[in-house]
Write a structure and sequence with these properties.
Blueprint lengths: L2 H6 L3 E10 L10 E19 L2 H6 L1 E8 L4 E8 L5 E2 L8 H14 L8 E9 L33 H16 L5 H16 L6 H8 L2 E4 L28 E7 L6 H14 L1 H23 L4 H29 L6 H13 L3 E5 L8 E7 L4 H10 L11 E5 L7 E2 L2 H11 L1
Parallel strand pairs: 3-6
Antiparallel strand pairs: 1-2, 1-12, 2-6, 2-7, 3-4, 4-5, 8-10, 8-11, 9-10
Helix pairs in contact: 3-4, 3-5, 4-5, 4-6, 5-6, 7-9, 8-9
């Protein structure tokens, strides 16, 4: 890659997430969830091309999103006069990127005269967002794998949220109209447009701001065009003690998160008294876990607190599993309950384990002390006796915790990133 291009390229990134407590409770504004930013990231950088004469005379530009890792492109034509976004009928559809384009043009850029060139938004992601079973056999890079777009199995790290935040953030930076709060608001709005409903929003908030005690925004936030409303919330940091780390177990299956969330939400809406009990129980568990974590200053403190953490973990899992049973969906499937129980009971280095986020079969999340290795946990997982299960393979991965949200890569990281993709 030419040094001049290397010096000019600005690569932005955002972290993935794991919700270790508060699944479904954070659908309510009165509840909090504990969301941890992870160092698996989505990346985006912008290149430009001169507009063609016909485009210039019609005052139109092109925004093209390019993902080499899933060998796809999405092309949108922008009419700078009417602010209309259009796409050829023969083009593959991507509701998230279409929504990104719309909110950027309609609300993200104050002065459309800045848009004088066609824009390419180049998207990359770390490999763990998708199961290894989704990788193509032929690979062009040792770092960024190529995935089969027709056979993508997500691992539950929040790829949809990350692609929204990474692309929107890079565009706002390019247009010099960036602020963290603005990125958060527009990303949540783009997600609302893409999915035609308001979700919990914790994954987007974590990708923008990093690890936090998350509280949902007011559902009517998008009913006004007053962008001052995007400053609706106070960021409360959440820190896992440095004596703990996160291990994920990829189950190589995946769940329909939208179905799970839809059924649980329907149950909570139709049963307000049960919903209130659920919310109060989840809030109590979240407050207690924060209290315990804040008192851990050493490995000795951690070991002293293990029994308390495990008991709290059991209480939260019971609440989380029960709400699924009542809603007739598997938030913590029985087979995963058995696996978590065996791991927590038999490995002293494990302190906490859940089906994170919305639950289901995406993955398991464990908090362990720093002495436990991937190899040791993988050996234990491989030895588990699992009866009558569709789970054929479980892959252990250690995840680095990230306190940073959306940010610009430094020069050294940018140089390494660009060498890995070209």
């Amino acid at each position: 890659m030419q040094d001049s291009l290397l010096n000019q390229t600005k690569v932005y990134c955002c972290p993935s997430k794991v919700l270790i407590m508060g699944g479904y409770a954070i659908l309510s504004e009165q509840c909090v969830g504990l969301s941890v930013g992870l160092n698996e990231k989505f990346y985006a950088f912008i290149t430009t091309q001169d507009v063609q004469n016909q485009q210039q005379s019609n005052q139109k530009i092109i925004i093209k999103f390019i993902s080499k890792q899933i060998e796809s492109e999405w092309i949108y034509e922008i009419d700078l006069i009417s602010k209309q976004v259009s796409q050829s009928e023969t083009q593959a559809k991507n509701p998230f990127l279409e929504a990104v384009t719309k909110v950027v043009i309609e609300e993200g850029v104050e002065d459309l005269s800045k848009l004088t060139k066609n824009i390419n938004v180049n998207i990359f992601h770390d490999n763990r967002f998708y199961s290894s079973a989704s990788k193509k056999n032929e690979q062009k890079s040792n770092y960024f794998s190529i995935f089969d777009k027709d056979n993508l199995h997500k691992t539950g790290l929040g790829s949809s949220a990350c692609v929204l935040v990474a692309t929107l953030g890079s565009l706002l930076q390019y247009f010099q109209d960036y602020a963290d709060e603005k990125l958060h608001y527009l990303s949540q709005k783009a997600n609302f447009i893409a999915q035609k409903k308001i979700g919990s929003g914790f994954d987007i908030a974590t990708s923008v701001f990093g690890s936090q005690v998350y509280k949902r925004f007011p559902p009517d936030i998008f009913s006004s065009n007053n962008q001052q409303q995007y400053k609706w919330n106070t960021l409360n940091r959440f820190n896992i003690p440095k004596q703990l780390k996160i291990m994920m177990i990829d189950l190589q299956i995946g769940s329909d998160t939208r179905l799970l969330a839809g059924e649980v939400k329907k149950y909570l809406d139709n049963n307000p008294e049960q919903a209130q009990i659920f919310y109060e129980q989840c809030n109590q568990k979240a407050s207690k876990l924060q209290e315990i974590f804040s008192g851990i200053q050493s490995i000795e403190n951690l070991k002293e607190k293990r029994e308390s953490i495990i008991e709290l973990n059991k209480q939260y899992r019971d609440v989380f599993k029960t709400i699924g049973i009542k809603a007739k969906v598997e938030t913590e499937p029985d087979i995963l309950s058995d696996i978590l129980d065996q791991i927590i009971i038999e490995i002293p280095s494990v302190y906490y384990g859940v089906c994170p986020g919305a639950g289901g079969y995406d993955a398991l999340c464990l908090l362990t002390d720093n002495s436990l290795t991937v190899e040791q946990l993988q050996a234990k997982v491989d030895s588990l006796k699992i009866l009558n299960s569709s789970i054929k393979e479980m892959v252990v991965q250690e995840m680095e915790i990230s306190q940073q949200g959306f940010h610009l890569l430094d020069e050294i990281s940018t140089s390494q990133f660009l060498k890995n993709i070209f």
